Amino acid sequence: MLSDKERTEIEEHSRHYPRKQAAVIEALKVVQSHRGYVSDENVKDIAEFLEMTPDEVDSVATFYNLIFRKPVGEHVILLCDSVSCWIMGYETIMDHLRAKLKIEPGQTTEDGKFTLLTIPCLGACDRAPAMMIDNDLHGNLTVQKIDEILKKYK
Amino acid sequence: MVKITIDGNVYEVDPKDNLLQTILSLGLDLPYFCWHPALGSVGSCRQCAVKKYSGEDDQKGRIVMACMEPVVDGMRISVNDPEVKDFRANIIELLMTNHPHDCPVCDEGGECHLQDVTLMSGHNYRQFDFNKRTHNNQYLGPFINHEMNRCIQCYRCVRFYREYAGGRDFNVFSSRNRVFFGRYEDGVLENEFSGNLAEVCPTGVFTDKTYKQHFTRKWDLTTAPSICHNCSLGCNIIAGERYGTIRRIASRYNGKVNGYFICDRGRFGYEYVNSDQRIREPLRRGQASGRLEPVDRETVFNYFKKIFDKKPRLLGIGSPKASLESNHALQMLVGKENFFAGVSAVEHQLTLKAIQILKEGPAEVPSLRETEKADTVLILGEDVTNTAPMLALSLRQASRQKPMELPIKMNVPTWHEMAVLELMQDERSPFFVLTPTETKLDDIATAVYRNAPDNIARLAHAVAHYIDSAAPEVENLSEEETELVKQIAENLLSSKQPLIVSGTSCLNESLLEAAANITRALKKRQKSPWIFLTVPEANSVGLALLDEKDLNQAIEKALSDSYDALIILENDLYRRIEEDKANKLFDAFEHVIVLHYLHNSTTDKANLVVPVGPFSESDGTLVNNEGRAQRFYQVFYPGDSVKESWRWLGQIITGHGLNGRSELSKLDDFIEALVRDFPELKAVKDLAPNADFRIAGQKIPRQSHRYSGRTSMNANVNVSEPKPPEDEDSPMSFTMEGYQGMPPSPFISRFWYPGWNSVQAVNKFQIEVGGALRGGDPGLRVFEPQTDSDAPYYTRIPEAFKPQKDQWFAIPVFHIFGSDELSIYTPGVAELAPKPYLLLNQKDAESFSGEKVNVLLDGKQIELTVKTSSSFPSGMVGIPFGLPEMKIFKFPNWVKISG
Ligand code: SF4
Ligand code: SF4
Ligand code: FES
Ligand code: FES
After folding, report:
1. Of A50, B42, B311, B380, which residue is least crowded by CB atoms under 10 Å?
2. What is the tens place of the pLDDT at every residue in B627-668?
C-alpha cells in the first residue's frame, strides 16, 4: 500500500504530464525516497495507482540502475569504475572498501549500514577517483581519506 | 518504379518498402533479426548492414542499416563489400557472446533464424572466453516455453506482444547485456496470440511447449498444408506428424487470410487428434453386451448391406466441422431431401442470413487480412477475440489505420515502426464496440456500448437511419444513445474505408440485418463500405450452401416419416440441441450409424461407429466466413481402418450401386460430383491442381529431403522397410521422394529454402515480401458480393429489450478456450477454460444472497457460481458456451434463477 504522503507526491508529479503514466519514474523515486528501495509490492501499488500493469512499471524500474529493487543499506556508496577513475587507481579504493566493509560490490554490510555499488562516471573526472555516498560527492579519494569519510556516516 | 544498383547490378523496384525488404523481395540474401515484415523496422540489431555510396565517385561508401533506409532513385549500394561483410560477422559475434550455443538441446535447432544468420554472416569461430551472463526462466503458462539465455535482444517479442497484439502482461526489463524479455512474474501469458512468439522470436527463447511434449526436429516431420478447423475464419496452417501423432501446428502464410500469424486456439487446439478418445477401428454395438465392440471393415459394409437389402430410407445429418466433400457424400448416399445440416434451426437460419447479406451486397467483403486496412470499425454484437480470434488481431491493426495518415502526411515511411508509433501516440482509428459483454478490444475503442442484442440492433438501425433517412427509423432511444448514433454515423461517413463487423454468436438476426442496413445506407451516400460477418464453425458456410434444412427439421421429419437408419457425420448432436430432443431422435431409429473420430455422447447412441479421419487424416474443402473455399490435405496415412468420411461413404454408395453416376474413389471424383450437383461451387475444383499434377514428372514430398530414420523407424514391426503409402488424392507423396523445389502455393507443406531453415524462408515463397505467395495465395471465393445491387433495407426493428420480473434472458458467452468442442482436448486449453459460471449484472446479483445460484434451464436445475459485471445488461444472464461440464446449448432462452 502506498502511504497518503506518497500518493499526494505522485499525484503532484503526474499533474505535469498529459497522461499520468508519464510520471512513473517520479513515482518510483518518490517511493524510493520514502522506503530506500522499491519492493515487488510497491511496483504493483504504483501500477495500480497509475493504471499500468506491473510489467510496465517494472520495465522502467529495472532499466534505471539507481532505482533499487532490493533493500539497500542505510547509506549507498557509488564508487566510480569508469575510465578516468580507473586510470587514477579506483581499484585500490575498491579493494580497501571491500576489505573494510567486508562486502563485495552489490552487497550490504551485515549491520545494514552500507551498500557498495559501482557506477560508470559521476561526472567528476577532474577529481578522480571519485565516489558518491547518498547525495554527497567525494573526490580525489585515497585510502586514508576513505576511513575519514566513512566515519561521518556511522 | 525507381532504379537502384546493388553490387553493380541494376534493379527496377517500387520504392514503397525499406531497403532490406526490397533486397529480400529481389530474392537476394541479407541477414537480419529485428525487422519483421508485419512489425516494421527499428534498426536495433545492426545485422542488416550494407554499404551505401553517395554518388558515382564515391568509392568508400558508408555503412548503413538496410532496414532503416528508404529506397530512392539512383541509389547505389553493396551487400557483398568486404568491409560490410566483416561488420555483419562482427555483429553476430557480439550478439552471440552471451548465447549458450545449446542448439542440440534447443527446440529451435534446425529451424533457427539465428543459426541461419550466423552461417550466412560467416562468423564461424568463437573467441569469447569469458563467463556468459545467465537468466532465470519463467513459467509462462501451458503453451510457451521460456529459455532466456538464448536471447539476442532483437525486441521482436515485445514489439509483437505489446504493440501488435495489444498484450500488457509482458515486457522488456533491465538494461545492457542483462535485458530480459518476459513477464513481471511467473504466470500464464494472457494474450490470445502468444503462440506466435514461437515464430516471431528468431531464436529458441520462446518455443511451443505442446511441441516440446512430443518434440521432433522440423526436418523429421511429415507436414501438409492444412486449414484450421477451430473457428470460421479458416486460417492456413501447417500440421506436422511423426510416428502417427500430430506434433505441432504452425501458421502457414496466406497473404489474404491470416498473414503471418494464427491464434492460440488454432495453434494449440490440435491435441484431440492424438487423444485416447480417438476411434481408430470400426465399432459395432454387441447384441449381448450392449457395448461398442471392435469389428473389421467388412462388418461395416455388411451392416450397410443388410440395411440396403430392404431398400431403405436413410436420414443423413451433416456437420459444419466436416468438409464439403464429406457432407456432399452423405447427401449423395441418403438423397438430398433426406439430408439435413447438423446444426440447430437458429444457428442455421443465421448462417443462411449471413450468406444472403454477403451475396446481396452492395457492401464489399474484405478478406480477413484486408480488414487491417479499414480506418473506421463498428463491431455489432460480436466478441471477436473469443469467436473469431484472428479477426481481433486484424482489427487491432485497423485501429492504427487512421492515425497512419499522420506519418504519411509528414513523409515518415510507414515501415519506420518507432517513428510511426511516436507520432501516433494514443491516436486510434474510430472504433466502436457494441456488445453485451466486455471485450478485449475495448482498450482501443473510441466508445463502447453494452446492451442486450436487440438494443444493439436498434442502435445500429438508428445509425443506418441517420446515414440515410430512407432506412427505417428507430424510436425511443435515450439521449445518450442518440448522441452515440450520431458519433458513429458521422465517423463512418467521414472515413475512407468503413468496416462493419457482426456475426452469429449473439443469435440475433436483427443484428445482421442492421449491419446490412448500415452498409446499404453508406452505399447510398457514395461510400464503399466493407462488411465482415463471422459464423459459428469452420465449414458452417459450406454446409449451408449444401442444404438449407436444419437439425430441428430433421427431428420433425424423423418423427413424422418412417426411416430405416440414421447416419450422422462427424457431429455430436448433444452439442447442437437440447438433450431430450436428441434422445427423441435417436429413439426413433433402429439403426444409428455415426462417422466420427472421437467418442462422445452421440457415438454412445450408435449401433455402428465408422472410424474417420479428423483434419490430420483427411483431405477436403472448407468454406470460411467470407465464402472462401480452402483445401486442406491429409498429413499422414493413419493405417487401413481410418478413412476420410467421404471415402467410406463413397465405398458404401458404389458398393450398393447407388451412384449410377461416375467413379467415386479418389478426392477428385468427389470434387467432380460436388461441382456437378452444385455448379455454384465450381471454384472448389480450381483450388489446386488435381491428383495427376506432377512437376518434372514428380510428386511433391510431404517430407523434407533430410527426413531421418525412415528405414528403421518401423523396425520393431518389420525389419524390412514397408512400402510407403500412396496418395491417390493429391499430387503430394507421403515420403521424401519427389520434387524438392518450390511447389505451387496450395501444396506448400513447409517453408524451407537453401540457407533458410527457419520460418523466415517464407520470404522466398512470396512474390514480394509481405505480399501474395508465388502463384497467388491459395483459396477462392465461391461467391462474391453484388456490389452494384440495390438491395432494399430490412425493415423489422426489434422491440427494445425489457427485463422481466421472474425470468432472465440467457445469452451465450464465448471463450476462445472452452467454447470449442475439439480444442478443449488439449490439456493446456482445458486448463485455461473458465469454470462454469453465470454472468449477471452487479446490481441484479445483489438480489441473490449467496455466491451460487440455481438455474432452471429446460426443466433441468444446475448450480452455478455467480460472476458479476457492472456493464453487463440488467435482466440478462450470460452462460459460458460449450463448456463440457455444462452442456447448455439452447440459446437465446429465458431461464429462471433462485438462490
Ligand atoms: S526473446 Fe527472442 S524475440 Fe525477444 S528479443 Fe530475445 S531473441 Fe528477440
Ligand atoms: S482465428 Fe480461428 S481459424 Fe484462425 S487460427 Fe484461430 S481458431 Fe483457427
Ligand atoms: S570516470 Fe569516474 S567520475 Fe568520470
Ligand atoms: S534488421 Fe536492420 S538493424 Fe535489425
Report:
1. B311
2. 999 999 999 999 999 999 999 999 999 887 665 566 899 999
Ligand nearest to the CA of B630: 2
Q: Cell 463440457 sits at which residue? A: B884
Choose the residue to mutate in B143, B249, B258 for probing ligand 2, maximizing ligand atoms within 8 Å of C-beta.
B258
Question: H or E stretch including B448?
Answer: strand B447-450
Going B327 to B330 to B332 to B337, the CA torsion angle's sign is negative
Each domain of chain A, given as residue ranges in start order, spans 4-63, 75-151
- As a residue count, chain A comes to 154
Strands B236-242 and B700-701 come out as unpaired
| Closest alpha carbon to B493 in B463, B461, B471 | B463
Starting from the CA of residue B45, give the closest ligand.
4
Residue labelled with grid coordinates 502417427? B244
- State ipTM: 0.93
Answer yes or no: do B171 and A58 touch at CB < 8 A. yes
Architecture of the domain made up of A75-151: 3-Layer(aba) Sandwich (3.40)
Residue of A nearest to B189 (CA): A55
CA distances from B806 to B58, B837, B848, B849 (A): 85, 20, 13, 16
Cβ-contact B240, B248 below 8 angstroms: yes
For cell 569508469, what's the residue?
A82
Within 10 angstroms of residue B604's Cβ, the number of other Cβ atoms is 15
Identify from A25, A55, A58 which residue to disrupt to test chain B contact, counting B C-beta atoms within 10 A and taking the largest count.
A55
Using an 8 Å Cβ cutoff, are B606 and B592 in contact?
yes
> Measuring from atom 3 of ligand 1, which residue has the nearest CA?
B201
Give the mean pLDDT of B54-61.
89
- Phi, psi angle pair for B793, to nearest 5°: -70, 145
Mutation probe of ligand 2 site: the residue of B237, B262, B816 with most atoms within 8 A of C-beta: B262
Answer whether A56 sits within 8 Å of B171, measured CB to CB: yes
Cβ proximity of A31 and A2 under 8 Å: yes
CB B466 within 8 A of CB B481: no
A28-39 per-position pLDDT tens digit: 999 999 999 999
**For residues B353-384, b (16+ Cβ closer than 10 Å) or e, as one string?**
bbbebbebbbbbbbbbbbbbbbbbbbbbbbbb
Beta carbons of B840 and B868 less than 8 angstroms apart? yes
Instruction: Flag whether pLDDT at B726 surpasses 60.
Output: yes
In this prediction, residue B657 carries a pLDDT of 66
B398 CA to chain A: closest CA distance, Å? 24
Kindly state the greatest CA–CA separation across chain B. 95
Cβ–ligand 3 distance for A25 under 6 Å, the answer: no
* Record: fold of A4-63: Arc Repressor Mutant, subunit A (1.10.10)
Grid cell in block for residue B222: 511429415
Specify the amino acid at residue B742.
M
Q: Which set of grid coordinates corresponds to residue A11?
A: 499525484
Closest CA in chain A for residue B182: A55
The residue among A19, A52, A59, A63 with the most chain B CBs within 10 A of its CB, best to mutate, is: A59
What pTM did the predictor assign?
Answer: 0.96
Which three cell numbers, joined as nine digits, stand for B509? 438476426
Domains and CATH numbers, chain B: 2-80 (3.10.20.740), 360-536 (3.40.228.10), 808-898 (2.40.40.20)
Q: Do A59 and B171 touch (CB under 8 A)?
A: yes
How many angstroms separate the CA atoms of A23 and B27, rounded?
47
Whether ligand 2 lies within 6 angstroms of the CB of B240 is answered as: no
Single-letter amino acid code for the residue at A80: C
Nearest neighbour of B174 by CB, restricted to A43, A54, A62:
A62
Same fold, A4-63 and A75-151: no
Residue B66 Cα to ligand 4 middle (Å) = 7
- How many CA atoms are closer than 13 Å to the CA of B753, on its beta-carbon side? 16
